[in-house]
């Protein structure tokens, strides 16, 4: 929850800085503001935080991310993050804040993940459910 609040604060600061750069005529100050915006963007991407989170999440949730990558290698890194947040039972708004996307973007992401892990016609639905349950609940 702390991460959600931090990301929201950084996003609000970024918007304020962008508004200042549009109003400001001083090139030097505008350049400094743009550097701050880039720094905030880098922090919001959260690459370093994600790797720490991923390791801790795997320890707590029985290598969930590792097994998810093995069973569904076609999932993108964003979809894997998304799946981890779903596993934590976060709501749509919380996931949107963590990923820096809109609520609609979360809904689309949820649909894409569901589409990629749905049963292939050659598999029996019962087997598919057993495989998914093995990933999601163990």
Largest sheet: none
Element string (H = helix, E = strand): HHHHHHHH
Secondary structure category: mainly alpha
Query: Radius of gyration in whole Å, from Cα?
Result: 19 Å
Distance from N terminus to C terminus (CA atoms, Å) equals 24 Å
Q: Roughly what fraction of the amino acids lie in strands?
A: under 5%
Low-confidence stretches: none
Relative helix content: over 70%
Write the layout of secondary structure elements.
Layout (H helix, E strand, L loop, with lengths): L1 H22 L3 H19 L1 H14 L3 H8 L5 H11 L4 H8 L3 H15 L7 H13 L1
Helix pairs in contact: 1-2, 1-6, 6-7
Could you explain the architecture of this structure?
This protein is an all-alpha fold and 138 residues long. Helices cover 80% and strands 0% of the residues. It is built from eight helices and no strands. The protein has helices spanning 2-23, 27-45, 47-60, 64-71, 77-87, 92-99, 103-117, 125-137. The two termini are 24 Å apart. The model has no long low-confidence stretch (mean pLDDT 77).
Quick summary:
With 138 residues, this protein is mainly alpha-helical. 80% of the residues lie in helices and 0% in strands. Helix 1 (2-23) packs antiparallel against helix 2, helix 1 crosses helix 6 (92-99) and helix 6 packs across helix 7 (103-117).
